[in-house]
Amino acid sequence: MRPDDLLHPTPQGLFCPAGNFHIDPVRPVETALITHGHADHARAGHGRVLATAQTLDIMAIRYGDGFAGATQATGDGPIRINDVEVRFHPAGHVLGSAQIAVEHDGMRIVAAGDYKRGSDPTCADFEPVPCDVFITEATFALPVFRHPGPQDEIAKLLTSLKDFPERAHLVGVYALGKAQRVIRLLRDAGYDEEIYIHGALQTLCDYYRSQGIELGALAPATRDDLSKEHFAGRVILGPPSAFAAKWAQRFPDPVIAFASGWMQVRARIRQRGVELPLVISDHCDWSELIQTIEEIDPSEVWVTHGREEALVRWCELNQRRARSLHLVGYEDEVE
Question: Does one domain contain both 268 and 288?
Fold first, then answer.
């Protein structure tokens, strides 16, 4: 069997003919296998969705209980779809995120979705899975991307709080994954003050707590009973779009921060008006992508959604078969 016979790109997304299902399809399909709950991978309107129980919960939170015709939660064991064996393995990206291993006639392809290699107490760590073909993301697949330790970035935020106690510190975070990770990084660094959050973050923070993720004391940032001066020297988390709105004006002389791997790019920092960039990513940097490919050692690497050409070229220079999938519809996480 050739890899393309088992899994290949279509306008809807990656398609498995033998199983008659798609992985992270960008358009409604009959059966969709979903890697994680970010909106560029998890969309509503499919006839049937298979995903981890946590991803299904997150999709229901975001889209409502009727986001698909039917749903099926995956467990630790294999699932048979027609003649295809499917397994979900932790991806280390956000809570509930999974790699999807598809196996048929002795051929195994692993679609990693988005993933990261660093340890993160808010989700299960990435699990390397032996395979014939490894489908990797390429969000930060350029040698210039080298992510610093997240603890060092949080230390910058804590230092700024000490240096500017008269100013509020507004940290831009995505609602799913990044918000909860930044909160835990602050807690693990010894910050035990109340953290204020935008209302858009509340539901998913509550869900993380329901799954045993400790986040400490959180409070709504939009409160009429608190003066502007109350927020001096405080940490407030919110979606980046909120910082350009009147909502941000309720805080005293705010320091605008943003937690993202893109904070290594000066143009992105200027574009968002960020004073305190925090390079905290839920994706692999260049060296981690290379490490993962070398560790798994697949016969072939397929590269998708990101800087595909550079990673394909690295594979070719290192005598590894590789190709770009050129899938459309994948982008940055949305708020």
Answer: no
pLDDT digits (tens, 9 = 90+) for 198-240: 999 999 999 999 999 999 999 999 888 889 999 999 999 999 9
Residue 308's SS3 state is helix
Q: 165: Cβ–Cβ under 8 A, 6 or more apart, which residues?
A: 232, 233
- Bridge partners (DSSP) listed for residue 199: none
Task: Give the whole-angstrom CA distance, residue 21 versus residue 41.
Answer: 15
Domain membership of residue 307 as a residue range: 3-144+283-324
Structure-token match 């001096």, residue found: 232
Q: For the segment 59-90, what is each residue's pLDDT rounded down to a tens digit?
A: 999 999 999 999 999 988 899 999 999 999 99
Domain at 88, CATH number: 3.60.15.10
Structure tokens at 121: 């107490």
Q: How many residues does the chain have?
A: 335
The token pair that represents 181 in the structure block: 């990770």
